[in-house]
Write a structure and sequence with these properties.
Blueprint: H1 14-25, E1 29-32, E2 48-51, H2 55-116, H3 121-159
Parallel strand pairs: 1-2
Helix pairs in contact: 2-3
Amino acid sequence: MAITAKGRVQKVGYRDEVEEIARKLNVTGFVENVKPYFDDFRGEFEYFEINRGEWGEEIVERLDTTGKLLYRSVELGERTLEVAERSVELGEESVEIGKKMLGKQDETIDAIGGVSERIDRSKEEIVTEISALRDDLRSYMEEKFTRIEHELEAIKVKIGMV
């Protein structure tokens, strides 16, 4: 039995695809590019293979296939770059939100401090303790945000945003 595929099947990697499918399906025989004529093929084959044409034509076909794959790689690279850029933007937004949160916490501490002056001593001690804890938290968060900012800058450099 012979199957003739017509259309855009030459110089696009078609034979390699057919061979891969044939192996998966356990089909025996061969695939080859043919000129405008086609002879009937009959008989049993031991395995499936590619009958290649002239070496120059084969090289050009391989270059065409390579070009397609390279183009796909470039498209994927562009998508990856877009995702990386968006990640950097989100990281920067997170740092800004964190800084705003620290500012709000400062305002809250100041408000608590103002009220504590009008209340008894034990409440003042609680506020002092909270302030100390808040300062520890602030130092910790500032270190983290500084590290994140450095990492974001490094990512920007690596993806060429700087």
